[in-house]
Amino acid sequence: MGEIPCILSIGAILIAFKCLLIPSYTSTDFEVHRNWMAVTWNRPLKAWYTESTSEWTLDYPPFFAYFEWALAYVAHTIGFDDCLQISMTPIMSPRILVFQRLSVIATDIFYVSSRIFWNIAICALYAFKSPRLVAGIPKKMRKNAQEACFILLATLQALLICDSVHFQYNSMLTAFFILSMYFIDFGMFLLIFFQAALTFSVLLNFKHIYVYYALGYVFFYLVNYFEFSVAKFLRNFSKGTTRYSFQSLTEFLSAISLAIFLLLPFAFSIFPFFHVAGAEGLQNIATRLFPVSRGLTHAFWAPNFWALYNFADLILYRVLSNLNIGKFEAPTYTSGLVQEYSHSVLPSVNPIGTLFLVVIASVIVLTGLVIRWRKDSRPVDFSLFAVFSALSFFYFGYHVHEKAIILITVPMTIFAIKDPKYHSHLIHLSCVASFSLFPLLFTPFEVLLKYAICVAYFFIQLTFLKRYTRMPLGDLLPWRHVASWAGLAIVEIYNTFLHKWLLSDRLPFAPLMVISVLTSIELTSFFGSLIWTTFADGIIEISWQKATCRLREQLIRDMTYSVQTVEDEQDVQIVAGVDTSASSSNPDMVYVSVSFWKYPGLQHLATISDTRILRLPYIPQYLAVREAEVVADFVRTVIAERPELRPDVILCDGFGRFHSRSCGMACHVGALTGIPSIGIAKNLALHDVYETVGIDKKSKVDQFVDSCREVRKPKNECIYKSNKPVPGFIPFDIVEPVKLNILRMGGSMVTIQALSKLLLFFEFQSGVFVSAGYGIDLDLATTISSKFLLNNTTCEPIRAADLESRRLVRENFDGNRDKIE
């Protein structure tokens, strides 16, 4: 589907669906926004933030107050003056309902609309025109990625529930944030950076909760705009100097310009109030925007750290009270009311304490993010800065509302499109967000509606993410996530349909508390998993993966893994070859292919391929850490679906026991699949040989290399240089027992410069080097491998898998680009 049809179709469907939602239930937010229209229309400017006839006083920044005045002007113009009455009691009528619902639908044009409205259709603008969205995505997947981004943002279930059912204007405000991200993605010019900062500043003056993103902006601008160096800062700090000096007059002037762009919206926002009421007018705004009398948590606890803190305090209170240990006041945070409260056992928490935790958590994670990208020399992507910044504020913030989870899901959706490794994280976050928002809607009609919206979005998300990456469902839906959703679904069903029937009016807050605690646990898990995945290539992760790999290798060497060993050639009926090919644009995205062949008849049975995401970094001498489990899992999946193809031996592109730790890639694949394996390498680097046999045997290796050179001279018609089948092999008998047999030396021998640029190493290329993997001996492995050489430079099953994976990479990932080796 092209851009225009996609945008038109989704826009029309959404508008029609939102029109059908007009008669949905009326939440208190209807009266909130109706009263704000009435206040801004009937009261002078200086009284906007002091008017208190209704309990729903104006508590959003001035730009949103001006927006309410504009809505009031429209209502007055078209004869809806009944919307504009100031009253102590709520006012609602069909006319008011229709007007307010249509105002949300109209402002949604700013979020998603047709191509005609490019200047205001921010969602479509970002999805189809942002240069960074698809910069790291394989060429042939970019269109699907853009469509997935647009559809997932346009149909975001949290926005539908909060805006079109519960009633708010979050879509319009989210559009400002996405527009700022769009400018950042074009941030090669100073003016674009200024536009991004200006847009965010405007957003803050509409709704101050978007300060959740502030530290993300700060860190991103320090790194990209001012080119701030963490290493330089730490050096200065160690010398007792923490002052950051501007490197040039140009940089200083740029900083001043940026500050002006940031302050301009604030000046336009608050100056009219200062003009009519002086400092008192500013104080009135601050008092309304930052009330501290609402308590640590909302009436329904948002899924964050403080929900767990409240629950721990409640458990301690119950246990200690039953054991008659100490005297504690009964908790009041389970009353379901918005109020200040003190904890019974644990220390009470004030706003300053939560702000301290927010800043500390944000600074630690964002600093780590800066260091990670500086180390890897990769472009810093703002969307992940925004995710971590919003997540830190949401998790540790004071009086967080569950609806604020939208601030995490929006940038996370964008970042997951940019990096498919995070697709399972995005789906999990979306499901947790759905469950945390369910308590907002509780009337019978809306109960079914909220379930329908969230289930539909789940399948839309799953469908378009799978269409985009072709990843298997198992990678998108880990079993632990599915189990947690099942638990949450049971509690939700109990809360909605069974609790009141079983317990009448007793313990009304109990099931809501359980939902809060369970979603808090899942959000904590998401936070930890996000950190772990993002910093997976750090020192800690590399050390951990190396240690885990060495432990597994010891178990493999001890033959701990079960395997149906092959002791005779007669036991082999089917042989499989496996290989992977990676995208040039994103080496983490690979095609895994497995080719099945009859033995000894050498008839090709089938070649099966699928996409996989390599989630772990490449570590030299530890290739199995990155690829072994992915390859083994794919082989197991294929065998489960096609048991008649179960091979007796697997040929792997790599080494087996001929390895510096006597456990190469083939050993891992054989142990993890329970199928005997053979390692067949095409290249043999001498520096790896030295590592494997020991540097003390270097002279013997060099003599062996010299003899091989003599064998390869043109005057010697040696069969090892020919591409025709060979009956014999060269045993690499430098060490005993022999772990490597050479079926073919290949036609080329190149000199490789080491990374240090001081040492030169030789590498034999396009050869056939056989080493036993797991569950088979070297002699039998050599016999089987030699029969598959045919007229090629490697064994046919591996060659077939390699060619198929390369073809699929070209067709579905990179076009005509070659595979990254």
UniProtKB/TrEMBL annotation:
InterPro entries noted in UniProt: Algn-8, Endonuclease-V, Glyco_trans_ALG6/ALG8
GO cellular component, one term: endoplasmic reticulum membrane
Subcellular location: Endoplasmic reticulum membrane
Keywords for the protein's UniProt record, in alphabetical order: Endoplasmic reticulum, Glycosyltransferase, Membrane, Transferase, Transmembrane, Transmembrane helix
First-level EC class: transferase
Domain of life: Eukaryota
Pathway membership, UniProt: Protein modification; protein glycosylation
GO terms (BP aspect): DNA repair; dolichol-linked oligosaccharide biosynthetic process
GO MF terms held by the record: dolichyl pyrophosphate Glc1Man9GlcNAc2 alpha-1,3-glucosyltransferase activity; endonuclease activity
Main location: endoplasmic reticulum
Entry annotated with the keyword Glycosyltransferase: yes
Topology relative to the membrane: Multi-pass membrane protein
Residue stretches spanning the membrane: 7-26, 109-128, 149-169, 175-198, 210-234, 254-278, 299-320, 352-373, 380-398, 448-465, 509-532
This enzyme's EC code(s): 2.4.1.-
Family per record: Belongs to the ALG6/ALG8 glucosyltransferase family.
Designated name of the protein: Alpha-1,3-glucosyltransferase
Organism whose genome encodes this protein: Caenorhabditis briggsae
